[in-house]
Design brief:
disordered N terminus; 14-stranded mixed beta sheet; about 375 residues; alpha+beta; 11 helices; single chain; Jelly Rolls; Phage tail protein beta-alpha-beta fold
Length: about 375
């Protein structure tokens, strides 16, 4: 006894094929007879194939595109074969093949964008990233943006279909942002928010301030209610997710307040009043000379650069990259001026340089404590 086996079409595969057909037919040249014949063969495989192409056309075209799709199929043999009409509910007017291509291009662009931005792809880099003391790490996010994370730092990625949010939890990071005007890129740090479209900038979260330095493009700065944004980000619902529709209740309620804009070669600090989650201000915008900019961002090259800085400032910076505690024998030692470039993570080499070039003595008190003093003659 023979057995009939019926294979049901896979709607996921058909949906992808329908999108591919719309994109394939998008172009400067009209579709060839061979292409239209292949499309007709694909449409005749099952009603699901026709339904899927029809629904995609309706969804992305938002106009009467089914007639343009159907007409060339009905004229493959000079009009002798009617072909298959996509929708029996719609009449088929007489259009040229160039009209068909023009109609498809609108849909094709929409489908291409939809395939690129499928939520599962955009969400693939969501999660928490961290570095240990003395470690640096470069991460390429799902949208192509690159984050270089400095020592002892953490950030959390929360991308969605209409937004790209990053929360800098501690430390410092440099962001090179891929342009996407449909999905704003926002970095939340402390009580501050930095928003960019396609640009590069660094954010350093320390104590009650957020230092922002822009190396390319332009960013906007805002003050945020930390408790509100933390709660929203934990729910993966950004405070201004619905900005495009104009329903931004969070912003209107005062949880986000615009502070200003800075461009390449400028820096600013968003400072918060102690013991508050609601009050932040922006310091005067500072223009940073090229030499100073290179100094500030030399950590991206694995170096620390100083140019006549007091020793206590140097020690504060060095201490970010080591677990060794550095102490001073006398407050006057802190005023010693230091200049030079030091490799990150090579603490012993730094101590050797201080002894060899700056008249200092390094005394090891234990495996994780050193004392800096003026060297004896």
């Amino acid at each position: 006894m023979s057995e009939n086996i019926v294979e049901f079409p896979d709607r996921t595969v058909i949906e992808e094929e329908a999108g591919a057909w719309l994109i394939r037919l998008d172009g400067d040249c009209a579709p060839s007879a061979e292409e239209l014949a292949s499309l007709r063969e694909w449409l005749e495989r099952s009603p699901v194939h026709r339904e899927q192409l029809s629904s995609l056309a309706d969804f992305w075209g938002k106009m009467n595109v089914l007639t343009e799709l159907a007409v060339p199929l009905g004229r493959l043999d000079g009009g002798t074969n009617r072909g298959h009409v996509l929708s029996p509910r719609r009449a088929i007017p007489q259009y040229a093949r160039t009209g068909f291509a023009a109609a498809v291009i609108v849909i094709g662009i929409g489908i291409a964008a939809a395939i690129w931005s499928r939520p599962d792809q955009l969400l693939s880099s969501n999660g928490l990233y961290a570095t240990a003391i003395g470690q640096q790490q470069s991460t390429t996010l799902a949208d192509g943006s690159v984050v270089l994370l400095n020592t002892n730092s953490q950030f959390k990625v929360d991308f969605g279909d209409r937004y790209r949010n990053v929360r800098l939890l501690q430390g410092e990071a440099h962001f090179t942002v891929t342009r996407d005007s449909e999905r704003p890129f926002r970095v939340y740090a402390g009580n501050g928010r930095v928003q960019a479209v396609g640009t590069a900038f660094s954010v350093y979260l320390k104590d009650n301030s957020v230092d922002v330095t822009v190396t390319e493009g332009r960013v906007s700065l805002a003050s945020v209610n930390r408790a509100t944004t933390n709660q929203l980000l934990e729910r993966q619902a950004p405070p201004d997710r619905d900005q495009s529709s104009g329903s931004n209740a969070i912003v209107e309620s005062g949880a986000i307040e615009t502070l200003g804009t800075i461009k390449a070669g400028e820096s600013a600090s968003i400072r918060s009043a102690p013991d508050t989650e609601n009050i932040s201000t922006i310091n005067a915008i500072e223009t940073v000379a090229a030499q100073e900019m290179a100094k500030r961002l030399s950590w991206r090259e694995g170096m620390l650069t100083f140019s006549g800085d007091p020793l206590d400032v140097v020690v504060d910076e060095i201490s970010r990259y080591t677990t060794v505690s550095i102490e001073f024998s006398d407050p006057a030692v802190k005023a010693t001026r230091i200049g030079g470039r030091f490799p990150i993570g090579e603490t012993d080499a730094m101590f050797d340089a201080l002894e060899a070039n700056f008249g200092l003595q390094v005394t090891r008190l234990s495996h994780d404590r050193v004392l800096l003093s003026v060297a004896e003659d």
